[in-house]
Amino acid sequence: MRETRLWSLHILVIPIIAVLLGAHFALMHYAPVFYGVSVEEARNFETMIERGKSVAQLVLYILLLAAGLYHGLYGMRGILRELPLTPALAKLVDWGILLFGLFIFALGTYVTWWTFSFKAGG
Amino acid sequence: MNSNKPTAYNNRLGLKGWVYAGRYTFERYLYLGHRLSGMGLIAYMVLHIIETANRMRGVEAWQGLMALFASWPFKIIEYLLFAAAVFHAMNGVRLLLTELGFFLGKPKEPVYPYSSSVMRHRPLTFVIMGLAALIIILGGSSLFFP
Amino acid sequence: MSDKTTTPREITFRLRRFNPETDSVPHWDSYALNVPDGMTVLEALHQLKAEQEPTLAWRSSCRMGVCGSCGMFINDLPMLACQTQVLHLGTDVVSVAPLPNYENVKDLVPNLEPLIEKHAAIKPFIIHTNSKEIDEPTGEFLQTAEERESISQFTHCIKCGLCLAACPTVATDPLFLGPQALAQAYRYTADNRDCGLHDRLEAIDIFHGPYQCHLAGACSQACPKGVDPAFAIQLLKRTLVLDSIGFGKKKSSLAKVMPLADVVKAIEEFAPPKRTV
Fold first, then answer.
1. Which residues pair with C14 in a beta bridge?
2. Which positions in chain B have a beta carbon within 8 angstroms of at least one beta carbon in chain A?
């Protein structure tokens, strides 16, 4: 694939990260303003589960996961591939980063879905 | 084959070339900062995803973890992370604009003393870094002295 | 008041020495020399070789910043020895080493082959759809003053290789095309007589291409001719991104051919009146 497309995507996800990560920061650290609860209470199991039941939160967190992981792991791939690697090692870095990213994305998505569909006592 | 053939010395700087900015310009230090903060942030993101997955182990596991994160050492780590995120984001804005060719001026006949695109976008660099420093200080005061 | 940048005085030169036939690693030797105002590092090396160290090796030719042969790592920055005045460095000890990120052949001589190979890889020549006109020209390709100025500074590259010595990516990545070749890729791609971007994609739209430039700016600081390779690389990124989404150079914007007779007529129109005496 043309490197331009991979890099363009790395750039295109920046606004998504800026908005969603900014919102994530703000919601967690300014919980009294947004949720009417203290920062400590916002981290409680019950309030965390409560927040996770929103469809918007489900969708936006999965989007943030995808955007953040792509941006960060593309950057990490760049750093690793700038090392003097043999072609086999370079391939290993590419595939390793891709599979690692997919695994972490799957884990994050599963946890977000688990929270969304959580039933107390079930 | 002559085994006594003189061999050249490998003079590639290696990782020293990444981390030692020496007498180069300010922007080379920003390059290093962007790289280091980026690595820190992606490492944190992965750890954060794994750590928040602890919720699936039940209320006790989650509350225990949150109590640990409320302690002082973690507050300091959290602040360092915040500072890294702010620096990376603000410097990222500069890179986003300049890497797409904005704020660099127009190509023109070079006349000594030469001006470079790096120097031409320096006002932007200083404004952005000034803002980053301000946000990092304000964020620190609100985190440690709420 | 004494001025460190002009007062003639004794300067200690720390020169990095390496003889591939006897040494496995380089070492440093020091030499003292009385330096007058205006003496360049290259002139100092010549004097040291003539008076103190006849085995000292380096590469130089034109002595006037045109040939690009005498790039060296002077006081930890890549510079041309011929256009760096010793006293302007402002230090009583001046260190001179071969350019980093290249193989060190002997003493201060780097092997610039990778620079030339990467330069050749990006097809550094005009690629035009009208190849017949290139082979058997009937006139001149038109280029306005503005079109010329948009690439002019990038044409000043003398292939001295200082930019690769300064680049942090080249420090670890031997496959990275580097500031010189990438700047030249932009220089030709942006030329209104050229439509060769797609012919160059295989060489430049790769991992080791423009996106491994992270705008550290060191290449532009090092460039002795004001080429500003970092600038060209960012413009190349923009060109590639626009091309990938279908906003590449239009064939209609390519330079038109002006018949030779018209070229002569235009020259005559602007030429000064003929001398009669």
1. C30, C95
2. 12, 35, 38-39, 41-42, 45-46, 49-50, 52-53, 55-56, 59, 62-63, 66, 69-70, 85, 89, 92, 96, 99-100, 142-143
Please provide the distance, in angstroms rounded to a whole number, between the alpha carbons at the two ends of chain C: 57
Chains touching chain C through at least 3 C-beta pairs below 8 angstroms are A, B
Number of neighbouring beta carbons within 10 Å of residue C155: 15
Q: What's the maximum distance between 2 C-alpha atoms anywhere in chain C?
A: 71
C208: nearest CA partner in chain A: A82
- Whether C221 and C148 map to the same domain: the answer is yes
Q: Which residue has the tokens 């080429």?
A: C227
Count of structural domains, chain A? 1
Phi-psi group of B58: left, alpha or beta (phi > 0 → left; psi -120 to 50 → alpha; rest → beta): left
How many structural domains are present in chain C? 2
φ/ψ of C60, rounded to 5, equals -160, 165
Q: Span B95-103, mean pLDDT?
A: 96
Both structure tokens of A117: 């569909």
**C5-42 pLDDT, tens per residue?**
889 999 999 999 999 999 999 999 999 999 999 999 99
In this prediction the pTM is 0.93
Q: Is the dihedral of CA C89, C40, C61, C29 positive or negative?
A: negative
| Run means of pLDDT, 10 residues per run, chain A, 122 residues | 92 96 84 78 86 92 97 98 96 98 98 90 56
* Contact residues for C271 (Cβ-Cβ < 8 A; gap 6+): none
pLDDT surpassing 50 at residue B1 = no
CA C120 to chain CA mean position, Å: 14
Residue A121 placed within a domain:
no
Helix axis angle, B72-99 to B59-69, nearest 10°: 80
What is the ipTM, given to two decimal places?
0.91
Q: Are residues C234 and C125 in the same domain?
A: yes
Quick check: C222 and A18 in contact, CB under 8 A?
Answer: no
Crossing angle between the packed helical segments C229-244 and C197-204, to the nearest 10 degrees: 110
The secondary structure of A18-47 as a DSSP string is HHHHHHHHHHHHSHHHHTSS-HHHHTSHHH
Ranges under pLDDT 70 in chain C: 1-2, 277
Closest approach of B4 to chain A, Cα-based (Å): 27
